[in-house]
Design brief:
Blueprint (H helix, E strand, L loop, with lengths): L7 E7 L4 E6 L6 E7 L1 H15 L1 E8 L9 H16 L5 E5 L3 H11 L6 H16 L12
Parallel strand pairs: 1-4, 4-5
Antiparallel strand pairs: 1-2, 2-3
Helix pairs in contact: 1-2, 3-4
Length: 145
């Protein structure tokens, strides 16, 4: 990673059985699905992505309760975050409220007539929301070399 290439952002949606992953494009404009994996397999995939593409940040879905509190699900995700940091040393992690992303993912998949993986779609939604919230460089300051 360099100043010109700050590294990609990956999103992680930790479920009780599967982990959904999505990754940004090099310019950090768009979320791209990576896939849905078992928890150990997802850690291996994160290691591979970090080595191949460079990951500057992992945005992890933070499953707050409907009233905005932490609970059993956030404790489970916290344990997984520790495992991620062990698998990818130096990984920066940002927890992002993921309330309703699974429902939105199901709705989008249904609209598209797809039977895709909800966890992957939810990770993509989490990531795109994060990317859309970030300031973008002025048009003249982007180098495509």
């Amino acid at each position: 990673m360099t100043a010109a290439d700050p590294g990609r952002v990956v999103a992680v949606d930790v479920g009780t059985k599967k982990v959904g992953l999505a990754m940004s494009d090099p310019l950090r404009l768009f979320a791209q699905p990576v896939g849905t994996f078992g928890d150990r397999e997802a850690l291996d995939k994160l290691k591979d992505l970090a080595q191949a593409d460079g990951i500057a940040l992992a945005v992890v879905g933070w499953p707050l309760t409907e009233d905005g509190r932490e609970g059993k699900a956030t404790r489970m995700v916290n344990i997984y975050i520790r495992r991620m940091r062990k698998a990818v040393p130096g990984l920066k992690v940002l927890r992002q409220d993921e309330r309703y992303t699974s429902e939105e993912a199901r709705a989008r998949l249904s609209e598209a007539g797809s039977r895709g993986k909800v966890d992957t779609m939810a990770a993509g939604i989490i990531l795109q929301e994060y990317l859309d919230s970030q300031p973008q460089p002025a048009p003249g300051n982007v180098s495509l070399d």
